[in-house]
Amino acid sequence: MATIFSKIIAREIPAEILFEDEVCLAFRDINPQAPIHFLVIPKKEIVSLAELSGEDEQIVGRCLMVASLVAAEQGLTGGYRLVANAGQDGGQEVPHLHFHVLGGRQMSWPPG
Ligand code: AMP
Which of 13, 21, 26, 66 is the most buried (most CB within 10 A)? Predict the structure, then answer.
């Protein structure tokens, strides 16, 4: 399903891109919830973690590796929060798999 994230991948709308390879893209969230807040998405149009197929295992692994690499590049030495909202109950708004990385402040638990 094509979403606004497909347009970011295609450079049809702007985003502050932090990392790109053949599998993933990382860019800053337009509505940051922490001093550092970026998203890591697969270029493949996967809806959510609830919609994975077997062939997506390496893609998801690469996205998590990119989240870790970019978090380090962004200087998040004190730690960070990784979030993947899935489906309606998970609060997912954009139906293209994405991992939020939030840092630069103390996170609380439980999330809302
Ligand atoms: P979720 O609620 O997990 O689906 O999160 C979607 C995220 O995408 C939200 O944090 C939005 O702020 C973010 N977002 C939506 N549109 C854009 C955009 N054009 N560029 C960057 N981030 C976006």
Answer: 26
Regarding pTM above 0.90, the answer is yes
Q: What is the spatial distance between Cα 107 and Cα 100, in angstroms, rounded to a whole number? A: 13
Q: Looking at residue 42, what is its pLDDT?
A: 98
Catalytic residue flag (residue 98):
yes
Burial of 93 (0-12, 13-18, 19+ CB in 10 A): exposed
Catalytic residue among 37, 96, 98, 100: 98
Tell me the per-residue pLDDT of 24-39, one tens digit each, with 9 for 90 and over: 999 999 999 999 999 9
* Residues 94, 3 contacting (CB under 8 angstroms): yes
